[in-house]
From TrEMBL:
Gene3D superfamilies reported in the protein's UniProt record: Glycoside hydrolase/deacetylase
Any one Gene Ontology BP term: carbohydrate metabolic process
Native source species: Clostridium putrefaciens
Cell location: Secreted
Gene it is expressed from: icaB_2
Protein name (Swiss-Prot/TrEMBL): Polysaccharide deacetylase
Record has Flavoprotein as a keyword: no
Name of a matching Pfam family: Polysacc_deac_1
Keywords: Hydrolase, Signal
């Protein structure tokens, strides 16, 4: 139903600015009293929603979540950053005053629409490569930085992957261990039962081994759809990451957040631009 905006404004102005005038007006228009009250409530609610949305658009309500994979001795490729390169990047973050948040802190801010302080950032690793322990972990400890490793649980203990003892040690030293499923399958291509099993089994395994509650997941290959998201929620995951490029923000569904890929081909100047974007 279309309502004459001039009439609406006249009612609102009368009520707010001049109660005597309002009383006279309402006596002349008794049928509009309830309508006016409802209208004002709706308008106030809409204003609140607009202001809330504007808050999301202000700088400070999103965060770059860096996505690494392998940290190698000297083999530089798309998903392989050298140890020296990683050290240079972490040193820049430390020297420049960046605050490296834990995944629980990221979730708290995004879930509750709390602004991040300036220069907030998060660090993640996908797959759970053994070099994360030998090459990345000592550097993260040196700079007292938080990080999250999304592990493929069936790979744990393999020659190229982290061992249970290694993830237990890291978990005690600011490295959060979360799920990357059991077998790194494309979740959107699995049957419902297989999808539920890989989501559930990986979470249950980490829960038991580390005596913790797994709350976060990175989708293998970043692939998800509405069924994947629904099943992840059903299994108790509170927040999930894709491989789509961009900052994580509360404007987006917390079950399909973006990240920033750090490639082995990225030099320090490019890295600096990315983290300050």
């Amino acid at each position: 139903m279309c309502v004459n905006m001039v009439f609406i404004l006249k009612i609102t102005h009368a009520i707010i600015t001049d109660m005597q005038e309002s009383e006279v007006f309402m006596k002349k228009n008794p049928g509009w009293i309830k309508f006016t009250v409802i209208l004002i409530v709706i308008n106030l609610f809409m204003v609140r929603q607009v202001l809330s949305q504007n808050n999301f658009n202000e700088r400070g309500y999103d965060i770059p979540v860096l996505m690494y994979h392998s940290i190698t001795e000297d083999d530089k490729k798309m998903f392989r950053v050298t140890k020296d390169g990683f050290y240079e990047q972490m040193k820049y973050l430390k020297d420049s005053g960046f605050s490296v948040l834990s995944m629980d802190e990221v979730y708290d801010h995004l879930k509750n629409n709390k602004p991040f302080k300036d220069k907030s950032i998060a660090i993640t690793f996908d797959d759970g490569y053994k070099d994360n322990y030998h090459n990345a972990y000592p550097i993260l400890k040196e700079f007292a930085m938080n990080a999250t490793i999304f592990v493929v649980t069936d790979y744990l203990g393999g020659s190229a992957y982290l061992s249970v003892d290694e993830i237990k040690e890291m978990q005690l030293n600011n490295i959060d261990i979360e799920s990357h499923t059991t077998n790194h399958a494309k979740l959107d291509k699995l049957t419902e039962i297989d999808r539920i099993n890989t989501l559930k089994d990986s979470k249950d395994y980490i829960d038991e081994v580390l005596n913790k509650e797994v709350k976060y997941i990175a989708y293998p290959f970043g692939r998800c759809n509405k069924d994947v998201i629904a099943d992840a929620r059903l299994q108790g995951y509170k927040m999930a990451f894709t491989t789509k490029s961009g900052h994580a923000t509360g404007r987006d569904d917390l079950n399909q957040l973006k990240r920033v890929l750090v490639s082995g081909y990225m030099n320090i100047d490019h890295f600096i631009k990315v983290v300050n974007k």
